[in-house]
């Protein structure tokens, strides 16, 4: 994890552009941020080595993968001891429907981002993951109607 990493204006400008399109060629990045191509490549290597850039990914349209429904779930546990948290986290990591999971503060203990093929598939997921788990006190479902973020698949 990158902690206390110094980023200057050039680094931030490059990262802003890479967050939108990580396939931007170094030559183009260099033109956009006002550096040489070799300086951009050197900075990118450094950002990866220092853990600032943790992954280069492709955002795939969920419908193409057969998972057009995006569902957010707030999960509250009965117990939050180390063993209980570790067990729940292991269950989450084992499920392909889970595309993001955060341990949070507030009214819920976890916020999940799920991609599923149908409401029937989500119901099966809830039965296996929540209803059959005695440590899950409650869960609240939020179904996304559409993606309005900058990362929306075209």
UniProtKB/TrEMBL annotation:
Native organism:
Roseicella aquatilis
Q: What is the lineage of its organism?
A: Bacteria, Pseudomonadati, Pseudomonadota, Alphaproteobacteria, Acetobacterales
**Pfam family example for this protein?**
AsnC_trans_reg
Tell me where in this chain the HTH asnC-type domain is found: 7-68
Q: Which InterPro entries match?
A: AsnC-type_HTH_dom (IPR000485), Dimeric_a/b-barrel (IPR011008), Tscrpt_reg_AsnC-like (IPR019888), Tscrpt_reg_AsnC/Lrp_C (IPR019887), WH-like_DNA-bd_sf (IPR036388), WH_DNA-bd_sf (IPR036390)
Q: Does the keyword Transcription regulation apply?
A: yes
Which Gene Ontology molecular-function terms are recorded?
sequence-specific DNA binding
Q: Say if the entry is tagged with keyword Cell inner membrane.
A: no
The protein's name in its UniProt record = Lrp/AsnC family transcriptional regulator
Signal peptide as annotated in the record: none
Keyword annotations for this protein, in alphabetical order, are: DNA-binding, Transcription, Transcription regulation
One cellular component GO annotation, for this chain's record? Answer: cytosol
Listed SUPFAM superfamilies: Dimeric alpha+beta barrel, Winged helix' DNA-binding domain
**What's a single GO BP term from this record?**
response to amino acid
């Amino acid at each position: 994890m990158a902690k206390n990493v110094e980023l200057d204006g050039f680094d931030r400008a490059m990262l802003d552009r890479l967050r939108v399109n990580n396939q931007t060629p170094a030559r183009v990045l260099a033109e956009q941020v006002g550096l040489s191509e070799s300086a951009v490549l050197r900075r990118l290597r450094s950002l990866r080595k220092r853990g600032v850039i943790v992954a280069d990914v492709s955002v795939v349209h969920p419908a193409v993968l057969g998972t057009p429904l995006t569902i957010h779930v707030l999960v509250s546990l009965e117990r939050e001891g180390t063993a209980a948290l570790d067990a729940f986290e292991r269950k989450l990591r084992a499920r392909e429907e889970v595309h993001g999971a955060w341990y949070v503060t507030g009214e819920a203990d976890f916020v999940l981002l799920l991609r599923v093929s149908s409401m029937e598939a989500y119901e099966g997921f809830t039965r296996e993951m929540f209803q059959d788990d005695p440590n899950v006190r409650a869960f609240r479902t939020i179904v996304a109607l559409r993606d309005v973020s900058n990362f929306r698949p075209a």
